Model the fold of this input.
Amino acid sequence: MSPKVLPAASLQRFFGILEAHNPNILELLKANTEEAFIAATEGALERALRTIESGAKQYSCLDERGLSKLLADFLNLAGYQATAERNINGHVDVVVEHSFGGRWTYLGECKMHGGFQYHVDGCKQVLGYCTGREQRAFCLDFFRVVGMFGKLAKLRAQMDSETPLSQSAPSADHRIRGAFLTIHVHASGGSIELLHLGCSVPKK
Done:
């Protein structure tokens, strides 16, 4: 006769397996504030970008829409509720929702890197999708060329120099390598943080 497993021990083992397989989904399950939801989502976002970059030889043939869909698919495989091309004040490239009740959303715009103005256009799009109640959104550039981190640094310097889209403060560092944060005054009168980041998929 097999020994009886206490429910608490069984649950602890389940969470241990879950955390070992995908630590970000456990963070999402525990998230009870928008800040915690954002942190968990950005952890999953970084893991998805690393996966795309590690398969860049296969994925570099995809266009902007295909790469955006791939990103949403990887987030879904990680246990997140993510959709591509969903209509929220326009067709949003990536929408990530809190899995339990949809209390919070994280909107993202994805672009093939085409320089400063093209990136700003993407930022304008995602800010236009926001209602003003969101704390943060993201604008992601897919880089077909080498030297992504240097180009992101130049992009950051130009954002701080020109302060487009009612940028209200200098940019701030972010824990994802190469990424940075800016704050913008939204049409609603509120402020929204924008996470700027890149994904390297150079053509071989």
Remarks:
- Helices lie at 7-21, 23-30, 34-54, 56-59, 64-77, 116-129, 148-162.
- The mean pLDDT is 87.
- The chain has one domain: 7-200.
- Strands lie at 81-87, 91-97, 105-112, 136-143, 172-173, 180-185, 191-200.
